[in-house]
């Protein structure tokens, strides 16, 4: 979640911001780690170090499009960095689009 200076959650102000925050929550959730989530929620970040880039891309895109609000997700850039992956992802939601550009720790 996006937090203010006091650590409280801040509401999103646009649909684009909502899509990016939703995608970040999915990308920061390890698949199968939390019983309350189904098997299609999250990514398998703990496995990425041994995977080919195409497998990581598939994992990310499948996880994002499993969310009912996200119609399409395309990883347009991915660079392995010391602490994870530097990603750029184009996201198409039900009523708009967004670009996510973040380093995701693995």
Key terms:
single chain; 106 residues; alpha+beta; three-stranded antiparallel β-sheet; 29% strand; globular
Structural write-up:
The protein is of the alpha+beta class and 106 residues long. It has two helices and three strands. The chain has helices at residues 15-27, 53-65, and strands at residues 70-81, 84-93, 97-105. The longest helix is centred in the N-terminal third of the chain and has 13 residues, at 15-27. The mean pLDDT is 88.
Termini separation comes to: 18 Å
Largest sheet: 3 strands, antiparallel
User: What is the H/E order?
Assistant: HHEEE
Morphology:
globular
Give helix % range. 10-25%
Ranges with pLDDT <50 over ≥5 residues? none
- Overall number of strands: 3
C-alpha-based Rg, rounded: 14 Å
The total count of helices amounts to: 2
Return the structural class: alpha+beta
β-strand percent reads: 25-35%
Average pLDDT metric = 88
